[in-house]
Write a structure and sequence with these properties.
heterodimer; A: about 525 residues; alpha+beta; Heat Shock Protein 90; 2 domains; five-stranded mixed sheet; about 10% strand; rod-shaped; B: about 300 residues; alpha/beta; D-Maltodextrin-Binding Protein, domain 2; three-stranded antiparallel sheet; 12 helices; about 45% helix
Chain lengths: ~525, ~300
């Protein structure tokens, strides 16, 4: 009950409304009772008045009975008996009416019965015999009249009537007093009831304000704030009722808005960067493609000019120059394709022995290794999850760079790996020229070259491809280097039986030492 | 909490309302008594103590015999009661034979015996549709009483001696004494006596005597007051006051309709001696007992209930 009460505004409102209705009903009932009491008292008072009226008529008849008899006995005149005759005809109905009017008061009714019997006796056993006696022997009747017995009896009856009246009046007054008192009580109760209604209504208003309006106002203010751009605003949501639900929903909404806003920000930043990258990429790609084109163009003009009198040897030399530039363009285009492919779609997830992957890369590098007399060693390597082609390319690029950026006659490269949680961390260490720390980040961007192409050939895309492959597999790649003392490229890959972490932006570690390097 | 308080208050208000609205239940009419198989005998009495006692005695005896009675005591003098009989307001009343004869039948002759008086009265009443039941042994004759002191003072022994009272005797008497033969009329007629009547209700004349407001008082021979030695009854050598044995006068039709009435009344009348009557009158007038109680005691004493 209590918890339902706390949980639902509807039930609370209904309850308070019910109480209010009950109070109003009670007040109404009290007033109805009061009005009915007053009406009843009025009726009773009226009836008492009527009873007294009927009694007075009866008394008049009684007096007429006595006066008629008295007059007739005294004078013998028939005319004087008329009031007696009339009264004798009318009094039974009057007595009956009186009896009816006091019917609800047993004592009064008994009194009426007694009076009626008294009048009956007065008529039958006194007045009529006296009239008869007067007809026979007037002087005897007169002497009987002189005893005053008749008047005595009349007075007795009249005093009984007077008592009846007095009692009727006091009964009426009593009823009126009672009714007044009750209606006073009813009015007071009504006032108290109205007061209670007002109090409950006030309490209801205050309660509603506290429990509904203020929280709703808070939510409205918060909504305004959200509309004005403040997505961090929260409203108190510790209640269990509908308001609590509203507050929680509001908070959920701002949270969701906030999240999507942040996502939007991130995405926008990503897009901006990617757009910028793309612009730079296009600029650099066109610039880098222009150089071999210009070389080819130069060679072709030379060939054109020299064609009439050039020796075959000279022509071959020139054509070789064209071929070199074409090779450069081809490798540039190939690397660009690699870069574009790596960024597209989900990488294949295969369980791979990195040793085999490394071996394939070494096979592809067999030419340069042999040419430079490089010494490539590898420690124990783990089983990882990944795309065999991409990982092979990764190793190929890193090893190729290590061999390329070395002034030694016999460059030494080692590949080692360690397990870090669910990841394998690889290190490709060389004894090459190293990288200047200020360029440690730049080297992973496409077309970033630290050295002239005349010195170390290459497209400047290799490390960008590496970074994209690692990042695509959910790993990180970074370089540690000391200028002149060689570089170590480290990267992480997910172990085979670990579920792959989602791909994200790769963070490159601050290299301990800078070392010029380029891919 | 607020709501609960309000609920309580509302309930309280409703309670008060219900208490207010509660109305008293009406009383029920008492059930009618077992209806009488016949109309009650309307038994009337005249307007003095002895009659009240007689009325009670006859009423109680009749009721004991299963005859319903409506007792109407204290109606008035014989003339009035007789009129009430005539107009049908009464069926029965105890009457004195002498009064009946002199005041109702209007016969001025005094029969020589109680039996003769009864016979004459019965003969008269039978002509009017009434009958007389057996008369009582006691005779409550009218009489004139004086105090012992007055009797000594004027040497009063007989009614005629009242002429000795200087300035004429004053007599305390009920008002009808003035017009009755056994009153001023007979006093003049039999004793040539002119007296003044001081009219008063029956029963008050002894006090008037005691206070010396009157010289003599019209009394009944069975008055309880006469048990006192202080009063002297004046002798009536000229038979002014007649035999006054009590006889119940009954409407003949009623008697015919209720033949067992005689059996309820006659044995009672037979026990009413002068001593018994005077004693009962004294019980009421002097001891202040209720006539009904006195009657009941008498009936029980005589084995009549």
């Amino acid at each position: 009950m209590r918890s339902i009460f706390r949980r639902s505004l509807t039930i609370r409102t209904l309850l308070v409304g019910g109480v209010l209705a009950a109070l109003l009903g009670a007040v109404f009932a009290v007033l109805v009772v009061a009005v009915r009491e007053q009406q009843a008292a009025g009726r009773l008072a009226l009836r008492s008045q009527q009873a007294i009226g009927a009694g007075s008529a009866l008394e008049t008849s009684l007096v007429n009975l006595e006066n008629g008899v008295r007059g007739y006995v005294a004078s013998g005149r028939e005319r004087l008996l008329e009031p007696f005759r009339t009264a004798r005809r009318t009094y039974p109905a009057q007595a009956e009416r009186l009896s009816r009017l006091v019917a609800d008061e047993p004592r009064q009714q008994a009194a009426v019965r007694q009076i009626t019997t008294g009048i009956n006796d007065y008529v039958a056993l006194w007045a009529l015999p006296l009239v008869g006696l007067a007809d026979d022997r007037r002087e005897v009747a007169q002497s009987v009249l002189a005893t005053g017995t008749g008047r005595e009896r009349l007075d007795t009856l009249r005093s009984e009537l007077a008592t009846l009246f007095a009692r009727e009046r006091s009964v009426a007054a009593d009823r009126e007093r009672r009714a007044d008192k009750r209606s006073d009580t009813a009015v007071i109760l009504g006032l108290i009831g109205m007061g209670l209604v007002a109090l409950v209504a006030l309490g209801m208003w205050l309660g509603l304000r506290r429990s509904i309006l203020r929280p709703v106002e808070r939510v409205a203010l918060a909504t305004r704030a959200v509309a004005d751009g403040d997505l961090t605003v929260h409203v108190p949501a510790d209640r269990e009722d509908e308001i609590g639900t509203l507050a929680r929903s509001f908070n959920d909404m701002t949270d969701a808005l906030n999240r999507s806003h942040q996502q939007l920000d991130t995405r926008t930043r990503d897009l901006e960067r990617s757009n910028h990258d793309l612009e730079q990429y296009a600029q650099m790609a066109s610039h880098d493609l222009q150089a071999p084109l210009a070389t080819i163009d130069l060679y072709l003009r030379l060939i054109e000019r020299r064609l009439p009198d050039a020796s075959q040897e000279e022509l071959l030399q020139l054509l070789e120059g064209v071929g070199g530039s074409t090779d450069r363009m081809r490798s540039l285009v190939r690397d660009l394709l690699h870069l574009a492919r790596v960024g597209r779609g989900e990488p294949r997830r295969e369980t791979l022995d990195t040793r085999a992957v490394l071996d394939r890369a070494l096979e592809n590098l067999a030419g340069p290794i042999e040419e430079r007399g490089a010494d490539v060693s590898a420690g124990p390597l783990p089983i990882v999850s990944g795309d065999p082609g991409q990982l092979s390319l990764l190793f190929q690029n890193l090893l190729g760079n290590a061999i390329k950026f070395s002034d030694h006659d016999a460059p030494r490269v080692s590949v080692t790996a360690s397990i870090e949680g669910a990841e394998a961390q690889f290190a490709v260490r060389d004894n090459g020229i190293g990288i200047d720390p200020q360029h440690a980040e730049r080297i992973f961007q496409p077309f970033q070259r630290l050295h002239g192409e005349d010195r170390y050939e290459g497209t400047g895309i290799g490390l960008a491809i590496c970074q994209r492959i690692v990042s695509h597999h959910g790993g990180r790649i970074w370089a540690e280097s000391t200028v002149g003392a060689g570089s170590t490229f480290r990267f992480t890959l997910p172990l085979a039986d670990a579920s792959p972490p989602p791909p994200g932006p790769t963070t490159t570690h601050e290299p301990e030492t800078s070392h010029a390097a380029a891919a | 909490m607020r709501a609960r308080l309000a609920t309580l208050l509302a309930l309280g208000a409703l309670g008060i309302l219900l208490a207010l609205a509660g109305c008293g239940g009406g009383g029920s009419d008492p059930a009618d008594g077992p209806s009488q198989s016949q109309d009650p005998i309307r038994l009337g009495t005249k307007n003095f103590t002895e009659q009240f006692i007689l009325g009670e005695i006859y009423a109680q005896s009749l009721r004991a015999h299963g005859i319903p009675v409506e007792l109407k005591s204290d109606i008035g003098s014989s003339e009035i009661v007789d009129q009430a009989m005539q107009i049908g307001s009464l069926d029965m009343y105890p009457e004195y034979t002498g009064v009946l004869l002199s005041e109702i039948a209007g016969v001025s002759e005094r029969p020589p015996s109680a039996e003769a008086t009864f016979a004459a009265a019965q003969k008269f009443e039978r002509t009017r549709g009434y009958d007389l039941l057996k008369m009582t042994p006691f005779s409550n004759s009218n009489a004139l009483a004086v105090t012992h002191k007055t009797a000594m003072k004027y040497g009063l022994r007989t009614i005629g001696d009242l002429a000795k009272v200087p300035g004429g005797a004053t007599i305390a008497a009920p008002p009808e004494f003035r017009t009755r033969f056994e009153g001023l009329v007979g006093l003049r007629d039999r004793y040539m006596l002119r007296a003044k009547v001081v009219a008063m209700p029956i029963g008050e004349q002894y006090r008037a005597l005691d206070q010396g407001r009157v010289d003599a008082a019209a009394v009944f021979a069975t008055d309880g007051m006469l048990e006192d030695e202080e009063y002297t009854i004046l002798r009536d050598p000229r038979n002014l006051f007649s035999f006054q044995n009590v006889t119940p006068v009954v409407r003949t039709s009623v008697l015919r309709r209720t033949p067992e009435l005689t059996k309820a009344v006659d044995p009672v009348s037979a026990k009413l001696t002068t001593d018994a009557m005077r004693q009962m009158n004294a019980q009421v007038d002097i001891d202040g007992m209720e006539p009904a109680e006195v009657a009941k005691q008498f009936l029980e004493r005589e084995g009549l209930l």
